[in-house]
Amino acid sequence: MPSCPIVRPESVRLYLVDVHKRALDQLMARKRPATPEEIDAAKACIATATENADWLDVKKELNSGEYRAMVAAHYKEGGGELSVDLSRMGGITRVLAYVLGWSFIGLDGQPLPFTEAAVKSFDMGVYSDVVEAVDTHHAESEQRIEARKNGQGGGTSSSATLPSASTTAGAMSGSTPSIEMSTS
User: Could you give the number of structural domains in the chain?
Assistant: First the structure.
């Protein structure tokens, strides 16, 4: 059965508290034991993030056009040359590629529209949390894509195994070659 290569437009909600929970897990798992102060600080971050209840709605997976646009956004053209656009580094292109909306409010107390200008106006702590959440989601998305490619993701893609030369020779003698199909 042929496969469908189109990315289904789906979104998922990421909670920023999960960034701080992962940070605490990493703190506890490191070789050097965490100090009580480090643990208390991490727990305080979790408590604040839980109280704020901030979230991001993001694309579950980028399609090839969105992915290429995200990569291309790191570069700028000038004087006939291509160079890295340093203002687009530090996670902003990934945030702009994935994020669809969020729970943040503006200085006026109203919902803050998702725009590049809004992202650039964040304080560095919130910006770091957003980038970390999106980067983790992106890495998980890449792992799902790789698993699908390797036949481990439960997808419905199929691949044909072409007949060998001996099978093809058999086809010329009147027998029908078989083409194996596998679905993952």
Answer: 1
Domain that holds residue 124: 11-147
Answer yes or no: is 178 within a domain. no
pLDDT digits (tens, 9 = 90+) for 23-35: 999 999 999 999 9
Residues 66-112 pLDDT 10s: 999 999 998 888 888 888 888 888 899 999 999 999 999 999 999 99
Q: What is the SS3 assignment for the chain?
A: CCCCCCCCCCEEEEECHHHHHHHHHHHHHCCCCCCHHHHHHHHHHHHHHHHHCCEEEEECCCCHHHHHHHHHCCEEEECCEEEECHHHCCCHHHHHHHEEEECCECCCCCECCCCHHHHHCCCHHHHHHHHHHHHHHHHHHHHHHHHHHCCCCCCCCEEEECCCHHHHHHHHCCCCCCCEEEEC
